[in-house]
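Still learning. Any example?
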Amino acid sequence: MATTIGLPSLTITFQKAAQAAANRSKKGYVGVFVRDSQAQGVHQLTSAALIPSELGADNQAYLSRAFTGTDRGQPSKVVAVVIAPGTEDTDALEAGLKLIENQSLDYIAPPPDVTAAEKTLLETWVKERRKDYFTEKLVEANPASPPDDTGIISFKETDGAIAAGNTTYTAAQYSSRIAGALAGIPMGMSCTYAALEELTAVTPRSEEEQKTAINEGNLILIHDGQVAKMGRGVNSLTTIPATGNADWSKIKIVEGMDLITYYLRTTIQGQYIGRYPNTYDNKCLLLTAIREYFSYLESAGVLNPGESWAEIDLEAQERWLKAQGVETADLTEQQLKEYQTGSWVFIKCGGRLVDAMEDFQVIFHAASTLAA
């Protein structure tokens, strides 16, 4: 345990369980980057009507696509980040990322002419942010190598194969549409088979090619002859960590984990750090707040009913006490819980994240039409 005094330590550990957000039952927020010589900076947009009119037509269209959503919902806000033109280096994008470090976003769409170097920069930025318990997820079109990360959606489509009538898109030009659609999915649903009704064509793939692409950690589009839609809602994770679960490759599951991360981080930072004496009673108040929010998530289809919990982490608390020279051998469990722990609060919590209905087996038994 570090003994130096610095910023209050907020360590959130989840093992195969959950993390979420007190005020995030709303639809998500999308950060969308465009390059333009006009209207540079950050614009908080709650509808496409607020897109700066001085932007170029292609940039306005790219931002507008982020608002489209699906029949399952639309994002509640698009944060437009207008950066300087030019792709010779990553300076403009780095400056834009600096501008949104104080934002709370769910999905990020790069500029439609994103370069390989910028993709690398965005991957690194998202991974570092997620280590600090922020919840951005990157929609990356056709990554050069598999990102293999829960925070990166590998959107895999052949450039020019995506079509809405006579209009065709590269995968990168359609990234804002995908980011907005993902952000608009309610917490109890997944994006699997969410319809993209304007599309008339997507990358042609056989059923076996679709399965291969998905198993390799790619979000793809499919067309069933009636409507275009997203395939299986997966992120790019294919190497499951030793302390992880296979379902961490599901966008819905990671969204649930991110909701809990956001809730714990913002609630503890905003409502608890520095505000209360570190007593056992106040620790119990925090545990009650966490349990109540978990109960809400159970009713919203994020966590499985009756399996959520939050309690004082006795093992961590006892280790800390021993490190301070406290003899704990003769203490009862309740005495350990109530023992004064300086500025430290040791909590563990969990629950079972719920997936959406996606795989079905239906067997029809036909009765004979002949009379007995």
Q: What stands out?
A: The radius of gyration is 23 Å. The first strand starts at residue 29 and ends at 35. The chain has nine helices and 13 strands.
